[in-house]
Design a protein that fits this description.
Elements (H helix, E strand, L loop, with lengths): L1 E5 L11 H15 L3 E7 L2 H7 L4 E10 L2 E12 L2 E7 L1 H4 L8 H18 L10 E5 L6 H9 L9 E6 L10 H8 L12 E2 L2 E2 L1 H8 L2 E4 L2 H6 L10 H6 L4 E3 L26 H16 L9 E8 L5 H12 L4 E8 L1 H13 L4 E4 L4 H10 L2 E4 L9 H7 L3 E5 L2 H6 L13 E3 L4 H17 L1 H12 L6 H18 L1
Parallel strand pairs: 1-2, 1-6, 2-5, 6-7, 7-10, 10-11, 12-13, 12-15, 13-14, 15-16, 16-17
Antiparallel strand pairs: 3-4, 4-5, 8-9
The structure holds adenosine-5'-diphosphate.
Length: 483
């Protein structure tokens, strides 16, 4: 099968979050299963600056975008064996950040989507069977494909699958402006089409007009049909539930490998974690100025500092938690409110708390390797990577049972010893505290069970292979349905 991923991000070229990680790994994993997966994305300034000499120019054209006629260049390059196409336009993508001002982003990604469709087939020398679309930045593609191409006999065999990584950002703007950018007939610009609450909504379009919709964990695929998680699209997702499927993300198990990770004080495996994790803990305590004690439980959080991550629950029970014999390390950046709150927490408890308000990937790895418990009490979590990385490094996650956290962390069962972490169900700070206390009890009083849990966590399979196979099954289902 020929599959073209359409994305605004791809590691290592451009990343602002989980989407970049997924597109950096999934197409490669799909290729390893014998399918011809490729990627198309914008040619951002940072890619031009870093990879300019490797980019191969393919062609240029002038594309219509409402009243504008815009230059669109097509370049290509191979990344890790994956062919990647780039849409070039300096006015839209020659900037230092991936995303700019919201209103301009609507125009930038309208241009991008139309340019991608113009480039299919001869220009790219690639006519995909499947367009694999991602988030609002490519949500209009199935509508544009139908209205501008299939209706006129072009690309009639191309089918669409749409993956929701973040339901919160939907791509919404005034009707007149979108009409101008997209040039769609009235029947598409209606409540039965792309309109939602009086305005066009790119994410609604992606959901409604694609053959299948996926999101990044099975539990989140169910949750988003409810009011609390649905971001206003829950009714649509319920009505379309026959086509909504959850496929769990993986992590890059080669990069996140405590046996080979060069940033650690000491490498370790599932057989040597007892000495390995202690050495890392002592080194981290020295690095960040906490008392060097290998027996004290080290609790960690590595996260964007935003309300989604359940930080209010942690702040609510922070004093009670810190009254225990523990050390708490927080690495994150984000909302000023939380940055200040964690800064204050360290100020009040300098002997037990370190709040590092920064983004530092290497420090993050050292923390994953050193921590005994990794806290992730999220309000919602489409998939979550932090808990998987933590388990891979043998730090046991304490999570709220939501989205991908529920699907990846098996809660400890003290009767049969099964599990890979600890969990609680309600958005309730003391439930969270009790889950941590349960974990601390096992840590202190049942070292054999604790070590067994670490072994089980480190042995979990978070590779992309399983997810890639699931996506391939979905592509096959889609193609069999239209034959
Ligand atoms: P989200 O995509 O919602 O931010 P995930 O858990 O899916 O949450 O992914 C977060 C990723 O970003 C993880 O790899 C985590 O280690 C990393 N990360 C988050 N904050 C920081 C930080 N301040 N420094 C280094 N890495 C971070």
């Amino acid at each position: 099968m020929k599959i073209l991923f359409v994305s605004s991000e791809m590691v290592p070229l451009a990343k602002s979050g989980g989407l970049g990680d997924v597109i950096g790994a999934l197409p490669k994993a799909v290729r390893e299963e014998g399918q011809d997966a490729r990627v198309v994305m914008p040619l951002y300034k940072q890619i031009k600056d870093r990879y300019g000499d490797q980019l191969k120019f393919m062609r240029w054209s002038m594309n219509k975008l409402g009243w504008r006629t815009m230059y669109s260049g097509l370049f290509s390059m191979e990344i890790d064996g994956v062919p990647v196409y780039f849409i070039d336009n300096e006015y839209y993508f020659g900037h230092d950040s991936l995303y700019l001002d919201y209103a301009f982003d609507i125009e930038r990604f309208s241009f991008f989507q139309r340019a991608v469709l113009e480039a299919l087939g001869d220009p790219m020398q690639f006519e995909p069977d499947i367009l694999h679309l991602n988030d609002w930045q490519s949500g209009m593609i199935p509508v544009l494909l139908e209205a501008h191409y299939k209706a006129h006999g072009y690309h009639t065999n191309v089918q669409c699958i749409y993956t929701i990584h973040n339901l919160k950002f939907q791509g919404i703007h005034g009707k007149e402006r979108i009409q101008d950018l997209m040039e769609l007939q009235d029947r598409y610009m209606s409540d039965d089409g792309v309109m939602k609450d009086g305005v066009p909504n790119f994410m609604k379009a992606g959901i409604l007009y694609s053959n299948r919709v996926t999101t990044v964990s099975p539990t989140y695929a169910e949750e988003i049909k409810q009011d609390y998680y649905g971001e206003g699209l829950n009714d649509l997702l319920s009505a379309q539930s026959w086509k909504v499927v959850g496929v769990l993300n993986g992590i890059d198990v080669d990069s996140y490998n405590p046996e080979t990770d060069q940033t650690l004080a000491k490498n370790y495996s599932v057989r040597t974690f007892q000495t390995g994790k202690k050495a890392n803990k002592l080194a981290l305590q020295e690095e960040i100025g906490l008392e060097q004690r290998e027996d004290v439980p080290l609790l960690a959080m590595i996260t964007r500092l935003t309300s989604q991550k359940g930080l209010d629950l942690l702040l609510h029970i922070a004093d009670e938690l810190i009254s225990q014999d523990i050390q708490l390390v927080i690495l994150g950046t984000g909302d000023e409110f939380y940055e200040n709150a964690f800064h204050d927490l360290e100020w009040y408890h300098p002997d037990k708390v370190r709040s590092m308000i920064m983004f530092d990937e290497e420090l993050a790895r050292r923390i994953y390797a050193s921590a005994d418990l990794f806290l992730m009490p999220s309000m919602f979590e489409p998939c979550g990577l932090g808990q998987m990385i933590a388990m891979r490094y043998g730090s046991l996650p304490v999570v709220r049972e939501t989205g991908g956290l529920k699907d990846t962390v098996v809660p400890y069962n003290k009767f049969d010893g099964s599990g890979t972490g600890f969990s609680f169900s309600n958005i309730n700070a003391h439930e969270f505290l009790f889950a941590i206390k349960d974990a601390l009890e096992v840590y202190h009083d049942y070292p054999d069970s604790w070590n067994q849990l670490i072994r089980q966590a480190m042995s979990s399979d978070f590779s992309w292979e399983r997810s890639a196979k699931r996506y391939i099954e979905l592509y096959e289902v889609i193609l069999s349905e239209v034959q």
